[in-house]
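Q: Predict the bound structure with zinc ion.
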Amino acid sequence: MLGSNVPTIGGLPKGFECADKWGCECIQIYLTLSRRWDVPILSEKEIFEFKNAWRKSKVKEVVAHLPYLVNLASSDSDLYIKAGNRLIAELDRARKMGVSFIVAHPGSHRGAGVKTGIKRSVNVLNMALASTSNTLTKILLETMSGQGTEIGSSFEQLAEIMGLVKQPERFGVCFDTCHVFAAGYDVSSYKGYEKTMEQLDKIIGMKNVAAFHLNDSKEDLGSYIDRHASIGEGYLGLECFHAIVGEPRFSDIPKILEIPERDEKSQQNLGLLRNLQTLTRKEVSHDQQTKRIHRRSKIRRLF
Ligand SMILES: [Zn+2]
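A: Predicted complex:
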Protein backbone atom coordinates (compact mmCIF):
# COMPACT_ATOMS: atom_id res chain seq x y z
CA MET A 1 0.00 0.00 0.00
CA LEU A 2 1.21 3.45 -0.96
CA GLY A 3 0.80 6.76 0.81
CA SER A 4 2.46 9.85 2.19
CA ASN A 5 2.97 11.83 5.30
CA VAL A 6 0.11 14.31 5.38
CA PRO A 7 -0.48 17.69 7.01
CA THR A 8 -2.90 17.74 9.95
CA ILE A 9 -3.29 21.47 10.35
CA GLY A 10 -6.73 22.06 11.82
CA GLY A 11 -6.81 18.72 13.63
CA LEU A 12 -5.78 15.10 13.09
CA PRO A 13 -8.95 14.16 11.13
CA LYS A 14 -7.89 16.69 8.47
CA GLY A 15 -5.12 14.30 7.46
CA PHE A 16 -7.68 12.00 5.87
CA GLU A 17 -9.03 14.74 3.57
CA CYS A 18 -5.57 15.21 2.14
CA ALA A 19 -5.05 11.46 1.95
CA ASP A 20 -8.14 10.97 -0.18
CA LYS A 21 -7.25 13.90 -2.40
CA TRP A 22 -3.78 12.50 -3.05
CA GLY A 23 -4.91 8.88 -3.34
CA CYS A 24 -3.16 7.54 -0.22
CA GLU A 25 -3.89 4.01 1.01
CA CYS A 26 -1.80 4.72 4.08
CA ILE A 27 -0.64 7.89 5.82
CA GLN A 28 1.93 8.99 8.34
CA ILE A 29 1.12 11.66 10.91
CA TYR A 30 2.34 13.10 14.19
CA LEU A 31 -0.11 12.21 16.93
CA THR A 32 0.96 15.22 19.01
CA LEU A 33 2.36 18.67 18.32
CA SER A 34 5.85 17.81 17.18
CA ARG A 35 7.64 20.86 18.57
CA ARG A 36 6.12 20.92 22.06
CA TRP A 37 6.72 18.78 25.11
CA ASP A 38 3.27 19.01 26.66
CA VAL A 39 0.76 16.43 25.48
CA PRO A 40 -2.87 17.33 26.20
CA ILE A 41 -5.26 14.54 27.17
CA LEU A 42 -7.18 13.25 24.19
CA SER A 43 -10.93 13.63 24.63
CA GLU A 44 -13.48 10.94 23.70
CA LYS A 45 -14.84 13.38 21.13
CA GLU A 46 -11.44 13.76 19.47
CA ILE A 47 -10.97 9.98 19.35
CA PHE A 48 -14.42 9.54 17.82
CA GLU A 49 -13.82 12.24 15.20
CA PHE A 50 -10.48 10.74 14.24
CA LYS A 51 -11.85 7.22 13.88
CA ASN A 52 -14.88 8.47 12.02
CA ALA A 53 -12.81 10.42 9.49
CA TRP A 54 -10.56 7.36 9.04
CA ARG A 55 -13.54 5.06 8.47
CA LYS A 56 -14.97 7.39 5.82
CA SER A 57 -11.64 7.65 3.99
CA LYS A 58 -9.84 5.18 1.73
CA VAL A 59 -6.93 4.96 4.18
CA LYS A 60 -6.24 1.42 5.38
CA GLU A 61 -3.29 2.06 7.67
CA VAL A 62 -2.18 5.02 9.79
CA VAL A 63 1.45 5.14 10.84
CA ALA A 64 2.51 7.58 13.56
CA HIS A 65 5.95 9.16 13.86
CA LEU A 66 7.60 10.22 17.09
CA PRO A 67 8.39 13.95 17.16
CA TYR A 68 11.93 14.99 16.30
CA LEU A 69 12.53 16.56 19.70
CA VAL A 70 12.47 13.09 21.26
CA ASN A 71 16.00 11.67 21.57
CA LEU A 72 15.77 8.17 23.03
CA ALA A 73 19.54 8.06 23.52
CA SER A 74 19.96 11.50 25.09
CA SER A 75 22.76 11.90 27.62
CA ASP A 76 20.97 14.89 29.16
CA SER A 77 19.02 13.32 32.03
CA ASP A 78 16.17 15.83 31.82
CA LEU A 79 15.69 15.30 28.08
CA TYR A 80 16.11 11.54 28.50
CA ILE A 81 13.26 11.37 31.03
CA LYS A 82 11.12 13.62 28.84
CA ALA A 83 11.83 11.35 25.85
CA GLY A 84 10.71 8.26 27.79
CA ASN A 85 7.54 9.94 29.04
CA ARG A 86 6.74 11.19 25.56
CA LEU A 87 7.13 7.71 24.08
CA ILE A 88 4.68 6.38 26.69
CA ALA A 89 2.22 9.21 25.95
CA GLU A 90 2.48 8.60 22.20
CA LEU A 91 1.96 4.83 22.59
CA ASP A 92 -1.08 5.55 24.75
CA ARG A 93 -2.52 7.90 22.10
CA ALA A 94 -1.80 5.41 19.35
CA ARG A 95 -3.69 2.70 21.27
CA LYS A 96 -6.71 4.95 21.81
CA MET A 97 -6.74 6.01 18.16
CA GLY A 98 -6.33 2.50 16.77
CA VAL A 99 -2.91 3.24 15.25
CA SER A 100 -0.83 0.06 14.88
CA PHE A 101 2.62 1.50 14.25
CA ILE A 102 4.75 4.29 15.62
CA VAL A 103 8.04 5.05 13.88
CA ALA A 104 10.89 6.01 16.19
CA HIS A 105 14.44 7.12 15.54
CA PRO A 106 16.71 5.04 17.80
CA GLY A 107 18.38 8.25 18.97
CA SER A 108 21.59 10.31 18.86
CA HIS A 109 24.40 9.59 21.29
CA ARG A 110 25.77 13.19 21.09
CA GLY A 111 29.37 12.13 21.57
CA ALA A 112 28.85 9.44 24.22
CA GLY A 113 29.53 6.72 21.63
CA VAL A 114 27.36 4.20 19.79
CA LYS A 115 27.61 1.60 22.55
CA THR A 116 26.36 3.99 25.24
CA GLY A 117 23.72 5.34 22.85
CA ILE A 118 22.34 1.87 22.19
CA LYS A 119 22.30 1.10 25.91
CA ARG A 120 20.36 4.29 26.64
CA SER A 121 17.92 3.68 23.83
CA VAL A 122 17.27 0.10 24.97
CA ASN A 123 16.73 1.20 28.59
CA VAL A 124 14.16 3.83 27.71
CA LEU A 125 12.40 1.50 25.27
CA ASN A 126 12.16 -1.18 27.97
CA MET A 127 10.80 1.37 30.43
CA ALA A 128 8.12 2.41 27.91
CA LEU A 129 7.21 -1.22 27.20
CA ALA A 130 6.71 -1.90 30.89
CA SER A 131 4.35 1.08 31.19
CA THR A 132 2.26 0.27 28.12
CA SER A 133 1.58 -3.44 28.45
CA ASN A 134 -2.02 -2.87 27.30
CA THR A 135 -1.10 -1.62 23.83
CA LEU A 136 -0.62 -3.61 20.65
CA THR A 137 0.97 -0.67 18.82
CA LYS A 138 4.38 -1.65 17.51
CA ILE A 139 7.44 0.57 17.72
CA LEU A 140 9.17 0.67 14.34
CA LEU A 141 12.84 1.52 14.61
CA GLU A 142 13.86 3.52 11.58
CA THR A 143 16.98 2.87 9.51
CA MET A 144 18.95 6.11 9.94
CA SER A 145 21.38 7.99 7.69
CA GLY A 146 24.02 8.24 10.42
CA GLN A 147 23.96 12.02 10.27
CA GLY A 148 25.74 13.59 13.24
CA THR A 149 25.77 11.07 16.06
CA GLU A 150 22.66 9.12 15.08
CA ILE A 151 22.54 5.47 16.03
CA GLY A 152 20.70 2.94 13.87
CA SER A 153 22.52 3.63 10.58
CA SER A 154 23.60 0.00 10.21
CA PHE A 155 21.42 -3.10 10.21
CA GLU A 156 23.72 -4.51 12.92
CA GLN A 157 22.94 -1.62 15.28
CA LEU A 158 19.19 -2.02 14.79
CA ALA A 159 19.50 -5.78 15.28
CA GLU A 160 21.45 -5.18 18.47
CA ILE A 161 18.69 -2.96 19.87
CA MET A 162 16.02 -5.47 18.87
CA GLY A 163 18.04 -8.22 20.48
CA LEU A 164 18.26 -6.34 23.77
CA VAL A 165 14.68 -5.10 24.22
CA LYS A 166 12.49 -7.14 26.54
CA GLN A 167 9.55 -7.69 24.17
CA PRO A 168 11.01 -7.90 20.66
CA GLU A 169 7.59 -8.89 19.32
CA ARG A 170 6.47 -5.30 19.97
CA PHE A 171 9.10 -4.00 17.53
CA GLY A 172 9.61 -3.79 13.82
CA VAL A 173 11.72 -1.81 11.38
CA CYS A 174 10.90 1.09 9.09
CA PHE A 175 13.18 0.98 6.04
CA ASP A 176 13.97 4.48 4.73
CA THR A 177 15.45 4.32 1.22
CA CYS A 178 17.18 7.72 1.47
CA HIS A 179 18.68 6.93 4.87
CA VAL A 180 20.05 3.49 3.99
CA PHE A 181 21.66 4.93 0.84
CA ALA A 182 23.20 7.82 2.78
CA ALA A 183 24.43 5.29 5.34
CA GLY A 184 26.36 3.43 2.64
CA TYR A 185 24.00 0.71 1.35
CA ASP A 186 23.95 1.14 -2.42
CA VAL A 187 20.31 0.59 -3.31
CA SER A 188 20.58 2.68 -6.49
CA SER A 189 20.55 -0.40 -8.74
CA TYR A 190 18.59 -3.65 -8.76
CA LYS A 191 21.79 -5.51 -7.96
CA GLY A 192 22.63 -3.28 -5.01
CA TYR A 193 19.04 -3.34 -3.81
CA GLU A 194 18.97 -7.12 -3.81
CA LYS A 195 22.29 -7.35 -2.01
CA THR A 196 21.04 -4.88 0.63
CA MET A 197 17.81 -6.82 1.09
CA GLU A 198 19.77 -10.03 1.56
CA GLN A 199 21.85 -8.35 4.27
CA LEU A 200 18.72 -6.96 5.88
CA ASP A 201 17.11 -10.39 5.90
CA LYS A 202 20.18 -12.03 7.37
CA ILE A 203 20.82 -9.42 10.07
CA ILE A 204 17.34 -8.15 11.01
CA GLY A 205 14.95 -10.58 9.31
CA MET A 206 12.60 -9.52 6.53
CA LYS A 207 9.57 -10.42 8.66
CA ASN A 208 10.47 -7.47 10.90
CA VAL A 209 10.13 -4.88 8.13
CA ALA A 210 6.76 -3.28 8.83
CA ALA A 211 6.99 0.00 6.90
CA PHE A 212 8.97 1.82 4.22
CA HIS A 213 9.78 5.47 3.83
CA LEU A 214 10.15 5.99 0.09
CA ASN A 215 12.44 8.96 -0.48
CA ASP A 216 15.08 9.74 -3.04
CA SER A 217 18.32 11.27 -1.77
CA LYS A 218 19.80 14.68 -2.55
CA GLU A 219 23.15 13.41 -1.31
CA ASP A 220 25.34 10.65 -2.68
CA LEU A 221 26.03 7.14 -1.39
CA GLY A 222 27.66 7.05 2.05
CA SER A 223 27.30 10.81 2.60
CA TYR A 224 25.76 10.29 6.07
CA ILE A 225 23.58 13.29 5.25
CA ASP A 226 19.82 13.07 5.54
CA ARG A 227 18.33 15.08 2.66
CA HIS A 228 15.22 13.70 1.05
CA ALA A 229 14.27 14.27 -2.58
CA SER A 230 11.23 13.51 -4.72
CA ILE A 231 11.21 10.10 -6.41
CA GLY A 232 13.56 10.04 -9.40
CA GLU A 233 15.01 13.46 -8.60
CA GLY A 234 17.97 12.36 -6.51
CA TYR A 235 20.91 9.97 -6.55
CA LEU A 236 18.77 6.88 -6.12
CA GLY A 237 17.11 6.86 -9.52
CA LEU A 238 14.13 4.62 -10.09
CA GLU A 239 15.31 1.02 -9.82
CA CYS A 240 14.97 0.54 -6.08
CA PHE A 241 11.53 2.17 -5.98
CA HIS A 242 10.44 0.01 -8.88
CA ALA A 243 11.74 -3.06 -7.04
CA ILE A 244 10.04 -2.19 -3.73
CA VAL A 245 6.63 -1.30 -5.18
CA GLY A 246 6.74 -4.42 -7.33
CA GLU A 247 7.54 -6.91 -4.56
CA PRO A 248 4.42 -8.97 -3.74
CA ARG A 249 5.79 -9.71 -0.25
CA PHE A 250 5.69 -5.95 0.49
CA SER A 251 2.27 -5.27 -1.02
CA ASP A 252 0.46 -4.98 2.34
CA ILE A 253 3.22 -3.00 4.01
CA PRO A 254 2.75 0.79 4.29
CA LYS A 255 5.11 2.63 1.91
CA ILE A 256 5.19 6.27 2.79
CA LEU A 257 6.56 9.29 0.94
CA GLU A 258 8.36 11.92 2.98
CA ILE A 259 9.42 14.37 0.30
CA PRO A 260 10.42 18.03 0.75
CA GLU A 261 7.73 19.53 -1.49
CA ARG A 262 5.09 17.30 -0.02
CA ASP A 263 2.01 19.46 -0.49
CA GLU A 264 2.83 20.19 -4.13
CA LYS A 265 4.32 16.89 -5.19
CA SER A 266 3.12 13.91 -3.12
CA GLN A 267 0.12 13.26 -5.34
CA GLN A 268 2.28 13.29 -8.48
CA ASN A 269 4.97 11.13 -6.81
CA LEU A 270 2.33 8.57 -5.85
CA GLY A 271 1.14 8.51 -9.46
CA LEU A 272 4.72 7.95 -10.58
CA LEU A 273 5.14 5.02 -8.18
CA ARG A 274 1.89 3.48 -9.39
CA ASN A 275 2.94 3.87 -13.02
CA LEU A 276 6.29 2.31 -12.20
CA GLN A 277 4.39 -0.82 -11.21
CA THR A 278 3.35 -1.22 -14.85
CA LEU A 279 6.92 -1.26 -16.21
CA THR A 280 9.37 -4.12 -16.48
CA ARG A 281 12.86 -4.07 -14.99
CA LYS A 282 14.30 -3.88 -18.47
CA GLU A 283 12.37 -0.75 -19.29
CA VAL A 284 13.36 0.96 -16.07
CA SER A 285 17.01 -0.07 -15.99
CA HIS A 286 17.67 0.66 -19.64
CA ASP A 287 16.48 4.10 -18.88
CA GLN A 288 18.78 4.47 -15.90
CA GLN A 289 21.73 3.30 -17.92
CA THR A 290 21.25 5.84 -20.63
CA LYS A 291 20.83 8.58 -18.03
CA ARG A 292 18.17 10.12 -20.19
CA ILE A 293 15.26 9.48 -17.89
CA HIS A 294 13.32 12.55 -18.86
CA ARG A 295 13.83 12.14 -22.59
CA ARG A 296 12.64 8.58 -22.97
CA SER A 297 8.96 8.63 -23.70
CA LYS A 298 7.84 5.72 -21.52
CA ILE A 299 9.52 7.09 -18.44
CA ARG A 300 8.77 10.71 -19.26
CA ARG A 301 5.09 9.98 -18.98
CA LEU A 302 5.67 9.01 -15.35
CA PHE A 303 6.90 12.44 -14.29
ZN1 LIG B 1 11.91 9.32 10.57
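A: Residues 292-296 have pLDDT under 50 and may be disordered.
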